[in-house]
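Consider the following assembly input.
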Amino acid sequence: MSETPKDPLGPGTPDNGDQGQGTTTQGAVPAGKNDAARNGAGRDRDLTSWLPTVVDSIAAVVLALLVGALLIMFSTPRVVESLSYFFSYPWDFFKFSGEAVWDGYRALISGSIGSGTAWTRTLERAAPLICAGLGVSLAFRAGMFNIGAQGQILLGALVGGFIGFHYDLPPGIHLLAALLGALVAGAAWGAIAGILKARTGAHEVITTIMLNYVGRFTMLYFLGKEALQRPDSDNLLSPPVDDSAAFPTIAGVHVGVLLAVVAALFVWWLLERSTLGFEMRAVGANPDAARTAGMSVARVYVSAMALAGMLAGLAATMTVLGRQDSLTDQVAGTVGFDAITVALLGRTTPLGTVLAGLLFGALSAGGLSMQGAAGVPPELTQVLQALIVLFVAAPALVRGIFRLRGQGRKADVMATGW
Amino acid sequence: MTTTTTGPAPASPGPGAPEAPVRDRADVRRQVRLVITFGLVLASLVVFALLVDDPAFTYLLGEKRTAEFVPKDGNATYISWGAVVIAAIALVLAALDRFPRGWKGALLGILVGLAFYAGFLMWAYTDQAEGGIQVFIANPIPGTIRIATPLVLGALAGCLCERAGVINIAIEAQFLSGAFFASVFSSIAYSSLVFIPVALCAVFGLLGGVLAGVLIAAMLGWFALRYRVNQVVLGVVLVAFATGLTSFLLGQIPSDHKETLNDPQVLEKIEIPVLADIPVVGDALFNQTLLVYLMYASVALVTFLLFQTRWGLRVRAVGEHPKAADTVGIQVNRVRWQAVLLGGVFAGLGGAYYTVGSTGAFDREVSAGTGFIALAAVIMGRWHPVGATFAAVFFGFMWNLQNQLSFVQPVPGELLGAAPYLATIIAVAGFVGRVRPPAADGEPYVKE
């Protein structure tokens, strides 16, 4: 679809297979091994370039789990007590710590992927993270740091939820209307930051942070209205959406989860196969070059932020229309901020974001059962998530610790600077 | 601002046809923006002035009613219409394209802002319902300074890091860990370390905050400079890490150990003898805690370090063009390390505000996202410590205004709550505009 003559990314070589990674292959590529891989057949090259990434990622998760094990040990009172007589009877310490860590991680796994309900919970938690993470990724690829997913989710939830419980519409249409409302509201909220950046140059980091707060107060304002108040409650709480506006469920999982996958496919198509996506990547790589090539940078900024907001709005429907949560000012939870981590862990690619979202969903679902079954504090999940991203982002460190041989991939650099 | 060419064009084609002066497009746009802004200000001020029925209001030169500060009565008519006059003068100047530039323009702009503030206050505080609680206009400066203190310190940390070319999104992480360890250190000093006098326990807490801030800064430096991790990723991750870890550690403090680990001594107010006697501002600025004085000193120190010393020149050099700096023999990563660690000191102090500097015990996410607002202040202040300080103080002022106005009737609460953030958006979009970060901000330097 995209014509290559105005191609500011590459030097115009016929080898366009690498274009998708265009922004990440900066820096000196070590000669030799990598060159050999480059000359090999397409499939081969894919394997050799993916393998180190997979190994690094697994090693990073293992390392994070090891640090997590330490934290579990020291949050277990029995283990800490056994430290006081460690030198006279060390076995207790090892036995108790082993038990604590084993119980904790067994609960983590069984609570996230161990049973049907566990899978349901994981998927339902992953879906909003994936959608909002895709939004953050998309903005990143266009060279913008979208911290505003939180506010965009709130606005999407507000409009989608309001349509969902206030109007009486026939089943299919009601769902569509609520979904559309959430998407449009999220897109509008996201577009504000894009328009401000395009028109006045206001930095999107500032405006999206501020819009998060404004979104929260907007939510509070409307929650105070009579029309949004749940009749039997004194708290600022809305009724849940009608069943006619809720996502239908298939095998215990609501259809919204499928929408998240569709959204990922859409973002992939948009970024890799459409003209607009090409322009986004070009602007993200170098706005000046893109402008020189005749692209409208302003248009790209606005459309990228609107699409990012739309995806955040889709994330809002996962909770409001999927789980049928009531609207409160806490309806977004921390999804908007976790989405940033998910997007960055996924290297701002659609596939990566989906995988990272699944991992975070699993950790979050498993963290709950860790708390319930093994008494591990719930904050541990958050620490684990942070550590995983940290180690994935620093392959040199992980390779050093595990003494893994080989060059590994370069620490890739996306969207450096502001 | 771009230069303008007002006056006759230098090379007019014919003697009989004087050409209209050529004006820069940016200059025209500036004029349009000023006219629109002042027009809106004037219109709302006139509305505010007309809406006042009973011009009586009470004001207070201090923040709270004490023996020293008693409410006094004032008349709103003169103030309201005086504000209208100021806005009208500014509007006329802008319409005639005679609005001054440079510092004079900035001064006039601030004057118009103050006029708007005064007119708005007159409208908000007059005509209060009879029999309600007595409301008076309190001095906004003490609250502003209090709220701005951590923001300024965090913004200074951001400036130092980013001037050296290391993006610091982790200010929030430094705040959180600083707050937590300040509380822990102060509590331990009070309950366990007998040799530390009670008066110094809170100061010992500050030390804990600094250590924690430097620790996060060290993580930032280690991953960013040693392992060249993408610094945006790193900052976001460190915030998540610190949020999780401080909550985790807080949960680990057993309830029977609360007083030994999380019940800190709070910093006392110190009155500076002569300066505190200055009317209106003296008590507000110079009857504050040690942390606030440290904040004043830090602003001066960072500005001096960055712009008057050899080290500061090096910091700015490695942030703008590390290769050039390396060529003349500056060790790029060493200078960056120094800047990042020094930034950690200030951010840790800022974090300490949330426990030993104000309320005491640490609570989950006690800084409530203010680290990100400090980050916004860095960008709004164009990576200059003084600019960032003004941005932070502006934010503190708006926040304090919101707190004060929450007792007054006419403004809806949610709009009031959103006001500081809306004002920041308007300020950034309308007046700050496009900013230029240090050229090498966020780019790891690899020696070839």
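Chain B has two domains: 25-125, 144-432. Ask yourself how this observation constrains the way the partners meet.
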